[in-house]
Specification:
The chain has a 5-stranded antiparallel β-sheet with strand order 3-2-1-4-5. Strand 4 and strand 5 form a beta hairpin. It has 81 residues and is α+β, with helices and mostly antiparallel strands.
């Protein structure tokens, strides 16, 4: 999928809630494949170091799959089909 803002290829991944606070994060598929046993139990630092994005939110968001992220523009596109 192409980023609607910059036109570059977006990376497939998933959204998940961060433990204990009001933010959530996007994880690239490579992170999920690498940490398949416990992909949603990592710290913010680990998520960011492995290509994820932290997103601040006013309310918690449940995991949504699939979705695509553009690190360049800090955009996430969710496929609602």
């Amino acid at each position: 999928m192409k980023c609607p803002k910059c036109g570059k290829d977006m990376i497939l991944g998933e959204l998940a809630n961060h433990r204990g606070d009001m933010s959530f994060y996007w994880l690239p598929q490579s992170f999920i494949d690498k940490h398949w046993a416990f992909p949603y139990t990592h710290t913010k630092k680990t998520v960011e170091n492995e290509g994820g994005m932290i997103i601040k939110a006013n309310s918690k968001v449940n995991q949504v799959s699939p979705c695509y992220g553009c690190k360049e523009c800090n955009i996430i596109v969710v496929d609602c089909n």
